[in-house]
């Protein structure tokens, strides 16, 4: 009886960190190596990492290992974003503010680095952070170049403004939520009539500078009990229903009538500015599904109003950056409190017609969860409508993006649209912790570049007594693109499509006039049971140390890769049960293979047809896995591994157990089945390397111990022959026919496919045929010469019944 030996255990060696360094040194690369560079989008150094960051790192780590298998060196890095508001808020503003920020950042970088190394990721080419003096000086160098090319401009434009941090925001820092708010119908006096104006922001009425109308629209003069009201004919029934008007239509007006007509605002007695008359303006983009056909225009509180109005006259703004009103009467009153005062005022004067509840999308700051407004302020922008040889820069960028591969494909559509509809990019922020920004002083910028190279950018705040704006965080992190100009691959979360992806693409294009990006991959988030995203601001996650106490890092990686990362992954402690089950089934499968592989005769190997069929199936399985790996379908790859294990268990293991346990130790049947085990293990070693790191190392030890036995033999083993021939996907199995005599002539002439053919034992119509390029070939069975397209079968064949002549009594027994 040949009982299995206990070489391989179910439990893996899951805490040996030194394995990472050993495996990197063991890889053999050819002379012609293609270098790729996997750029790590820097996370904020403002707290401990959560499982969402680990999802990002595991996807990157598996891709590095997949490239290793194909002799492609994929270099990676670790980066940290060290500037920005989260770090500023965690430190008090005092004399030692910059030192305390630096200490805080260094402390958190150490914690995050330990968290990442606990998961045993490897091949990190270098580490960087945006706080380094060399990095900051490079930032000034790039900024100086953009200033010289006149791509950067300064202008007073309404921008997104956070009320809590009193600073400008980018489009990537906005959340849209549906809320219940109020819309107001207000009447404004025009000659003897009253025009109904509609607005959702009552506080913006103080910045009113005109009223918009449509010239082609027909307007109604509606006679109510006391007054004449003017509104759009298109919205007649809607306005009457909301305002509950009682009366009749008095007359009609065409929109052209309001050209160059003036009106007086109801705040004319309170604020001096409104003593002058204001004009009506035609706006063709007016939405007739909302309001009353007239909309009040506040250019300092809206981008569309500003784009239409800024060429007309000077634009005023009646509140400061902290959103307090500057006028003498309402001085230092918050705009939201002012809206309550104004509501009482217009209600008392009977100017308000209706306060109507509306459900609509509103903008919120993603960090503070507070509402956002548009505020008119001087900011520094990068011009994306910059012309180059009669073409706009953003059109050239969109054209270059066609060459880049995207996964999933719909990201391409989103990224193109975001760049196309973006006219400029605001790179200045009104904060303290960051790299200070200058404008229209190129000599000073070069001076700051040299100083920051040795002392860091924070010394500029001590040299300059004036308060300075700082660079946007996305501008900081986009400069990490300039470290290597090789083929770059980017893998980040879905939220970076409008953030880091855009900033990298724009700045990289302005410097090199090309995109050095090969692949852009995006993944979704890890969410809790309630569907909320795991984030540092909400603190709805467990620390990685607590998770690693319960589960090993290999099982956590397996759980993350089992799911489709293009969709949200629900992270829960109970959900690890499925990953544990798959891991145990795989370990049991390998345990059976390894423990039963002993007393294998490396000299004489004769393979049975059923064993050849199993080998052919493993070849097909290997090709499918390779396709799935390079199409980034890791979850489908794990599914196919599970299916293959169940297939082998049902077909191969059920038939092989009697052969392994009951036959003689060096019999032909047992030897052929052992060869299949060896072949499956060799294929699994390659397949499991990207996914299961520790199991790969254990298989590596198994093969290294067996290789010593093989090298002692004088003859070259079949396994080494097999490895030599599989470089061109060619497989040769040793047999009795013509192999020894024709070895020199024929070895170079095999085709890429090897198939099996047998009349009675033909599983799934597989054929095992060797094709030769020689014009004539002599067969010992028929004793005839074969022409070009004929084939020689590797098994002896009887002409009468076309069944294989069995070479051994044991083989006959097996088939019976």
From TrEMBL:
Keywords: Aminoacyl-tRNA synthetase, ATP-binding, Cytoplasm, Ligase, Nucleotide-binding, Protein biosynthesis. GO terms for biological process: isoleucyl-tRNA aminoacylation. One of its GO terms (cellular component) is cytosol. It comes from the Bacteria. It catalyses: tRNA(Ile) + L-isoleucine + ATP = L-isoleucyl-tRNA(Ile) + AMP + diphosphate. GO terms for molecular function: aminoacyl-tRNA deacylase activity; ATP binding; isoleucine-tRNA ligase activity. Pfam families: tRNA-synt_1 (PF00133). Catalyzes the attachment of isoleucine to tRNA(Ile). As IleRS can inadvertently accommodate and process structurally similar amino acids such as valine, to avoid such errors it has two additional distinct tRNA(Ile)-dependent editing activities. One activity is designated as 'pretransfer' editing and involves the hydrolysis of activated Val-AMP. The other activity is designated 'posttransfer' editing and involves deacylation of mischarged Val-tRNA(Ile). This is isoleucine--tRNA ligase. It comes from Carsonella ruddii. The lineage of its organism: Bacteria, Pseudomonadati, Pseudomonadota, Gammaproteobacteria, Oceanospirillales.
